[in-house]
Every structure is written in C-alpha cells, then in structure tokens.
User: Which sequence fits this backbone?
C-alpha cells in the first residue's frame, strides 16, 4: 500500500515536529537556567532595595555609588579612543 501525502499532510507533519521541538527547547531552557534564577532574583531584589527612593542618607549614598558604578559599563564596554 503506497501512501501519498498531500501538502496539507506535510504541513500538519511539520507543525507536529515544530511543536515537539519547541516543547523540548522550553524544557531545556527551564532546566538549564532555573538554578541561576534564584541568584538573579536575589540580586534584582537587592538592587531594587538600594535604588528605591528613601530619605535615609546612607541609602542615598549607596544609590549614588551604585549609579556611578553601573555607569562605568561592564567587561564588554569599549570606550572610544
């Protein structure tokens, strides 16, 4: 018995394969990056605590120091020569 696929069958086949690959990519992404998310969330919470508005002079000083540090750029920052 010879089965002939129409273009509709091929489209459905490609859609199923796409959904399977997408599902596995999502699982991989979650499993790979999930251990790092707690560190990122902790750092984000700490940064929010430092940057949020406060009348405390020590926090104001930390906020200014944080902005000064972040304005320096990172490892990949290149200054124009």
Assistant:
């Amino acid at each position: 018995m010879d089965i002939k696929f129409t273009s509709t069958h091929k489209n459905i086949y490609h859609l199923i394969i796409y959904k399977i690959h997408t599902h596995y990519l999502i699982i991989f992404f979650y499993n790979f990056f999930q251990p790092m998310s707690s560190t990122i969330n902790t750092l984000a919470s700490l940064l929010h605590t430092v940057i949020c508005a406060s009348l405390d002079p020590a926090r104001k000083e930390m906020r200014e120091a944080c902005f000064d540090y972040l304005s320096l750029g990172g490892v990949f920052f290149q200054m124009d020569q």
Observations:
- The first helix runs from residue 7 to 51.
